[in-house]
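Continuing the series of single-chain predictions for the mutant panel. This is the parent chain; the variants come on the following pages.
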Amino acid sequence: SGLYSEGIYCMVGFHSFVFLGFAAGIFGFVYSAGVMEAYELLVENEQYSSRIFFRIKRKIKEKLDRI
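Parent structure:
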C-alpha cells in the first residue's frame, strides 16, 4: 500500500487519461488531414472545371443528352 500512496506509483491511475488524450489528438489529426485533403480535391476540381476544354465538353454532353 505504501508504493501506491507515495512517489511515482501514485500517478498509475492517470495513465488511462494520458492514453485518452493521445487518442483524441491522433483522431483530431487524422480527421483534419482527411478534411484538408477533401478540400484540396474540391479546389483542384474547381480549377479543372473552369478550363475551356471542360466547358466545351460539358456543352457537348448536354446537347447529346437532349437528343
